Amino acid sequence: MYYRLYIHLWLVCSVMLQNVAFASELKSPLLINSLQLKPQTSYQIPREFVGFIQAKQQTSLGSELNGKVKRILVDVGKNVTAGTPLLELDTGLLQTEKQQLFAQQQQFQAQLDLINTNLARQQTLQAKGFSAASEIDSLQSQRKALLANLSQLHATLAANQLKLTKSTIRAPYNGKISERFVSQGDVINIGTPTFTLLANDLTEAHIGVPAKYMTQILNQPSWQIRINNKLYPAQLLNPGASIDLNSRTVELRFALQAPLLTGELAYLTYQDHQQQNGYWIPLTALTEGLRGVWTVMAIVPKSDKNHQILEQRTVKVIFANGTDAYVTGAIHPYEQIVADGLHRVVAGQKVETILQPQGKNNE
Questions:
Q1: Would you say 270 and 213 are in contact if contact means Cβ atoms under 8 Å apart?
Q2: N or C: more exposed end of the chain, with fewer CB within 10 A?
Q3: Are 161 and 257 part of one and the same domain?
Q4: pTM score above 0.70
Q5: Which run of H or of E encompasses 166?
Q6: CA–CA separation, 260 vs 227, rounded Å?
Q7: Count of the separate structural domains present in the chain
Q8: Using CA atoms, how far apart are residues 309 and 349, in angstroms rounded to an integer?
Q9: In angstroms, rounded to a whole number, what is the distance separating the alpha carbons of residues 156 and 53?
Q10: InterPro entries annotated for this entry (predicted)?
Q11: Which residues contact 362 (CB under 8 A, 6 or more apart)?
Q12: Does residue 284 fall inside a structural domain?
């Protein structure tokens, strides 16, 4: 029985000693970090609008002739210059046709030479009175017919040569082969795509922007596009003409002075300026109160100015990023609040402060 009484008295004394220690701790001012509230009239919300990179020129190279693919001279990823041969069609039939046309040309030329010789002979005989005029007229008519046939043959030869030239598909400009659609031995028709060629010059970013942000974005003095966590200066090429029915955005085109890959995601960075009075404070100065409200600890000097005490204030978070929050509420300009370590303090506690430098949002 005495043993139990002893244990009970020991526990009571321990609790009393702890309360005394806690009370003395509350009476001794606690050293804390503080910051001074600087009033702001606005804040900025960083926004990004997504799009993709496109080549300034992108061409699907098709064949102008029917035929069988004889040779493929380039492949995907190859850089080519304007005029570089990319693909050849089989020209066996065209070469045979060309030889036939040359043979006809030689035949017509031989006939024309014979008629010219006979015509000269008849004109000589006519001068001596030994040839009839009708014979000369007949030779002249034959000569005109042969000349017409030769003109038609020359046009056919030119068409044949043009087909031979077009049997080789060439790059229309400097660029890179991004896709190949045919293989050696394929039989292709007119217009069949063979390669996709992307221009090597300036790339463009195509960004879809909601219509409500168009005015602010177009009035910016400069623009930046983020690609793979790197920012690139951009030049606006067009102000947008209509709203896309699927995405409900307006497409803007920006020129980029950088060797970027077509199809990469691009993000237009934009600072959305919002007019509202408030204060920037670090997230470490906030704590969650009852019913989901947010609170800060204001530092209130006592009338005797010998010490300061903490007072809990309710605030409304307007916007927050990874480090800071923009708030309004029961706080006042240039008032000091606890900057961090809120788990160490309670309302009504005496404190001494170390004023911390302001963050970049308050500068």
A1: yes
A2: N
A3: no
A4: no
A5: helix 133-166
A6: 9
A7: 4
A8: 5
A9: 46
A10: MdtA-like_BSH (IPR058625), RND_pump_MFP (IPR006143)
A11: 38, 40, 279, 280
A12: yes
